[in-house]
């Protein structure tokens, strides 16, 4: 597995007297220690539309393209940002005000570094009906449409199929020319390209989903089929949907991140902090060409599944192992969770005994070595990744990252007691209060349903498992269900730390 470190060791940062706003006109005025693009933005032309322009995309995929452009390559693959939510309009205004430049700040215990990236050259207007987005994707120059729309944004049913009955999908099927969703806009653009004979584009998911390309294909083709079977067949046959694994820990941006950018002398309204590690493993299936991302550290392979299974189960699953315990006892960040002896012990034991047995090695990395790497990355005190952010949207993250490992363990006869404890901690967290009595604010798209089930489960643990869209037949499993019930009762009776110590053998 390739590790790319972008941080250059540095000593303390002295706050400059003044900070400079990033813009094309100001690049030469930025402090000497801030890395800036070596390519001329005027020489770039768009080749990618990216929908869902959050921090992760700007720290990951856009960075790879930026570094490729720094080599004088991929000048016709610049990114047009896009969004389909009303809130995206505010982000667009901020990005356009600084010519779509992003300040990336790498946080590493050995030092921090700052870099301004310029691979994004525009931001599509956000409008009801998505006409500007459809027009942008219809342009023959656009050969890749990529997305980061979160794990739960792909309109899946509880069993993983396409949710044709979702109101957004029903709307887009009834109004294909004025769709509500990103996927409806993609279908409309592909319909226009087919009619004009300008050919397909590659549809590229960059979300943390195992088989993310296959899931994207299911959504796009499934939606198209609701209105035009011939179009659906054409998309299915002509477009490509490469699976990929993406990896970089990228905290949300708040006041401290804004201040950190100013410490470097950059008055960026939307800076991004990230760890000094990136990985991108991609199936080489691009129907209309692609940038040579492998020249700057990405990996093209025919076996993405092994990489993504390792990352999703150990890293993403590992986040869920610790985040809910941290929320309940009031530990603010993931690094602080790893410094908590009982939460860290939970992480090590669950990962080693209950997750590693269901992960295969990949070239250059064994599962246990990957656990050690993730332990180090999670423990990085420079990364102020909040426990709340990692615990967000548990209804998608537990079903995607944790429950599949429980099912694998039950099928193989390996231990699942620790994973049952993890689920009990999630149920306790969703009750909505910490052990100190403070309130845990809404933290899931279906928070009201989860909180109602969690409150009922305080007296009857089965009430939590009886949520079919989450647990299905696991609710009645003779090994998992009793273990879950025992842990949840213990958490409520004796507290989280007592339950953790009972599991890892120190209590």
UniProtKB/TrEMBL annotation:
> What are the Mannitol dehydrogenase C-terminal domain coordinates in residue numbering?
303-490
Source organism's superkingdom? Bacteria
Q: Which UniProt keywords apply?
A: Oxidoreductase
Tell me one Pfam family matched here.
Mannitol_dh_C
Report the residue ranges that make up the Mannitol dehydrogenase N-terminal domain in this protein.
Answer: 47-294
List the GO molecular function terms: oxidoreductase activity, acting on the CH-OH group of donors, NAD or NADP as acceptor
SUPFAM superfamilies assigned: 6-phosphogluconate dehydrogenase C-terminal domain-like, NAD(P)-binding Rossmann-fold domains
| InterPro entries with a match to the protein in the record | 6-PGluconate_DH-like_C_sf, 6PGD_dom2, Mannitol_DH, Mannitol_DH/Oxidoreductase, Mannitol_DH_C, Mannitol_DH_N, NAD(P)-bd_dom_sf
Which PANTHER family does UniProt cross-reference here? Answer: MANNITOL DEHYDROGENASE 2-RELATED, MANNITOL DEHYDROGENASE DSF1-RELATED
Q: What is this protein called?
A: Mannitol 2-dehydrogenase
């Amino acid at each position: 597995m390739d590790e790319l470190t972008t941080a250059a060791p540095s000593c303390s940062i002295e706050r400059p007297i003044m900070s400079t706003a990033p813009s094309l006109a100001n690049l030469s005025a930025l402090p000497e220690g801030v890395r800036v693009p070596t390519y001329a933005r005027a020489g770039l032309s768009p080749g990618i539309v990216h929908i869902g322009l959050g921090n992760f995309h700007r720290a990951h995929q856009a960075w790879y393209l930026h570094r490729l452009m720094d080599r004088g390559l991929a000048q016709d693959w610049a990114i047009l940002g896009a969004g389909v939510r009303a809130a995206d309009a505010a982000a667009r205004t901020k990005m356009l005000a600084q010519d779509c430049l992003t300040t990336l700040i790498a946080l590493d215990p050995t030092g921090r570094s700052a870099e301004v990236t310029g691979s994004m050259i525009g931001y599509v207007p956000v409008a009801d009906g998505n006409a500007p987005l459809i027009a942008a994707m219809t342009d023959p120059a656009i050969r890749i449409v990529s997305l980061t729309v979160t794990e739960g944004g792909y309109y899946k049913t509880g069993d993983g199929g396409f949710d044709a009955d979702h109101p957004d999908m029903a709307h887009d099927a009834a109004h294909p020319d004025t769709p509500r969703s990103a996927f409806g806009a993609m279908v409309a653009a592909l319909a226009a390209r087919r009619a004009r004979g300008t050919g397909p584009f590659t549809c590229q998911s960059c979300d943390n989903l195992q088989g993310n390309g296959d899931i994207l294909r299911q959504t796009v083709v499934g939606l198209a089929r609701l209105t035009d079977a011939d179009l659906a067949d054409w998309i299915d046959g002509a477009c490509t949907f490469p699976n990929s694994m993406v990896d970089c820990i990228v905290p949300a941006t708040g006041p401290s991140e804004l201040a950190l950018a100013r410490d470097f002398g950059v008055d960026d309204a939307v800076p991004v902090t990230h760890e000094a590690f990136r990985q991108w493993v991609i199936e080489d299936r691009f129907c209309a060409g692609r940038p040579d991302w492998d020249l700057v550290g990405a990996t093209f392979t025919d076996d993405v599944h092994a990489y993504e299974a390792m990352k999703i189960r150990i890293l993403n699953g590992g986040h869920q192992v610790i985040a809910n315990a941290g929320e309940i006892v009031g530990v603010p960040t993931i690094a602080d969770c790893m410094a908590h002896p009982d939460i860290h012990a939970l992480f090590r034991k669950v990962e080693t005994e209950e997750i590693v047995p269901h992960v295969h090695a990949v070239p250059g990395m064994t599962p246990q070595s990957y656990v050690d790497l993730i332990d180090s990355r999670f423990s990085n005190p420079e990364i102020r990744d909040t426990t709340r952010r990692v615990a967000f949207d548990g209804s998608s993250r537990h079903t995607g990252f944790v429950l599949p490992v429980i099912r694998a363990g039950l099928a193989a006869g390996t231990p699942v007691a620790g994973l049952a404890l993890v689920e009990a901690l999630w149920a306790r967290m969703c009750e909505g209060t910490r052990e100190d009595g403070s309130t845990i604010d809404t933290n899931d798209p279906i928070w009201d349903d989860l909180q109602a089930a969690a409150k009922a489960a305080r007296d009857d643990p089965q009430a939590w498992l009886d949520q079919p869209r989450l647990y299905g037949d696991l609710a009645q499993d003779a090994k998992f269900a009793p273990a879950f019930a025992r842990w949840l009762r213990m958490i409520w009776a004796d507290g989280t730390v007592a339950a953790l110590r009972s599991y890892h053998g120190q209590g």
